[in-house]
Amino acid sequence: MSKVKELNAKIYVSVVFLIGILLAIYILYKYRDVSILGVVLFGVLVFIADNLSAPLPKAGSVSVNFGITFASLILFGPSTALIVTIISIFNIKEFTKRVPYYKHLFNAGQYIISICITSIVFDLLYKKNVESFFYPSNIGVIFLCAYVFFMLNTILTAGVLSISERINIFNVWVFNFAWIIPYHFFLSAMAIAISFLYKLYGPFTLIFTSLPLIMAQYSYLLRIKERKAILNSIMQIVRIMEAKDVYTAGHSIRVASFCEQISRKLRLNEYDIEILNNLANLHDIGKVQIDLSILNKRWKLSKADWVEIKKHPIVGYDIVKEIDFLKGKADAILYHHERIDGKGYPFGKEGKDIPLFAKILAIADAYDAMTSDRPYRRALTKQESIDELEKNKGKQFDIEICDIFINIIKEDQMGSSGEKKI
Ligand SMILES: [Fe+2]
């Protein structure tokens, strides 16, 4: 993160934390009816739930503790819910990971702001003197408050990501949080059920309402871990492959980085950017079946060598299409050596038939190849590579994506020459 971005992020975090502290003081001062039983029971539950939460793609995590905290708000009021929230902030995993202190401050600040404002709205609108628990307007208030909490919590988190990574806040929100909306409303309904059964039959009902929620969350966490393990083991193969070929060391990681820069300029959503990033990392995985003597050849490749090399997009596609969350876009690997004019391989597809991800991948891949040393030629300079891209625009590469990428390289050139002056 650049120093300016880091400073902006720290200012944002400090403001969020400060507002959180002020709101917490206000709530504890205004509502002095803390329930010790509520704090103990619900505090233990949120502590367990938060320590078994699953990470989200870009940042943050998904946890059922909202449902539990929210139930404590319905049952015991704002101050108890606030203390339960403060307990939920103590996540052992985060502390053992040695997360920077400002991340803790931010988490604390944004959770406290979210629960305090939600509590104020709840206290203003919820009719406590109504006897029936399922009084329609009160149920409506509960769902409204759930929405308020969700929006505050996710927008504050998207804000910090948007500042620190200079990503459009809407993109961050859609990718990270939009898909949680149904899940969040399910948790709101669960909070109603938890509170209703608690009121009717007492605290022991928590064993039947909250614990199954925590177990369901734990199985989701295991699924996320499995997905990461699959990606890591495949990336390990890529690293071994690149280590054997001295000329392509680090190639896939650089290609992935170029793809990410292009896709941000194209304003793709964060979900697609993540998928493309994974595909770019794996785009040459099909080379595992090519003989090393061909890959490391120091002289011109024969016709037979080329026949072998041209198989790698198909082999790579066959491998990647088996990965559940990548199979929908795996054809980017199949077509990453196709050309707009139809003279590429393996199928000679023309521009209109080549998917967007493959077009992006083709440019990023070609540029990294141009700017790296090869056994038979030295690396081209940035300017020579730009000329080469310009020359092949509309023939080998998509015109619009090529222009975007040339601008990225030029901006990068200007940025790095600017840094040198300092
Ligand atoms: Fe390739």
Question: What does this protein look like?
Answer:
The structure is a single chain. It is built from 19 helices and two strands. It has 422 residues and is mostly helical. α2 (36-51) packs parallel to α4. It is elongated and about 85 Å long.
Number of strands: 2
Runs in which pLDDT lies below 50 for 5 or more consecutive residues are 418-422
The topology string of helices and strands comes to HHEEHHHHHHHHHHHHHHHHH
Oligomer: single chain
Please state the average pLDDT score: 86
How many domains? The number is: 2
The strands making up the biggest β-sheet line up spatially as 1-2
The small-molecule ligands in this entry are: fe (ii) ion
What Rg, in angstroms, do the CA atoms define?
A: 27 Å
Gap from first CA to last CA: 18 Å
Structural class: mainly alpha
Percentage of residues assigned to helices = over 70%
Main sheet specs? 2 strands, antiparallel
Shape: elongated
**DSSP helix count?**
19
Which strand-content bin applies to the residues? under 5%
